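Thread: Newbie trying to understand structure tokens

Hi all, I'm a second-year student working on a class project, and my supervisor (Dr. K.) asked me to get a predicted structure for one chain before our next meeting. I've only ever worked with sequences, so writing a 3D structure as a token string is new to me. If someone could post the tokens and maybe explain what I'm looking at, I'd be very grateful. Here's the chain:
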Amino acid sequence: MMILPSLGIKRTLLALPFVIISKIVGARNSCKLLFRILRVTEGIIDYVSMVNEPENLHPRHRLIKYYEYFSRRIKASDRVLDIGCGNGFVACQVAVATGAVVLGIDINAEGIKSAREHYRYDNLSFAVGDACNMNMENTEFNVIILSNVLEHIKDRHEFLCRLKNTLRPERVLIRVPVYNRHWHVKMQEELGIDSRLDATHYIEYTKDTFFNEISEAGFTIRECEYQWGEIWAELNG
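---
Reply by user tm_fold:
Sure, no problem. This is what the structure looks like when written as tokens:
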């Protein structure tokens, strides 16, 4: 067995079983196994951590508070459309924090049912709707929220162009996952492993791919931050 002195004896002993396996099946296959174990472990952590959270929400909402990025950019006089609102958590946080009128839509009827049961405010409503096929005519929203939504849409250029040309929002607030979030991504690709955070993602963004996609649809980026492996951005309509 190869000992790497700089890593110390403790770390070497912890890795010993997989070093032995790598001698049998090769280092490449050993690393593929470890990445699969890591993915399963992360899924278990997600599940267990949600058990004692209010309404079984993922703790990232409470810990990261990404929705505050949206709320700080919304006024009470705004009319907000949260596309792909899921269980309604973000729409609720924005409505409560800002006093703005907020409509959350999502294709998942069960999610909308849950949102209506849990979040009841006069300035907040929910509807079942497919963002890619919804009728955008005669709507009066000046702010659009796309929180971890864009990466799930196959034809994003058409979708963004429809948003801009039909809804004509003043601002679009976006949150998307970053591709170059960890060196593991490149190694997983080298090993032939799916590196996406979610199997339903059509894209995970670099700075260049995000900026290009947004500008090609006719939007301009007013502000952009990189937080927690994500891009948070405010677009001008």
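A couple of things are worth pointing out once you decode it. The mean pLDDT is 91. Residues 57 and 78 are 27 Å apart (CA to CA). Feel free to ask follow-ups in this thread.
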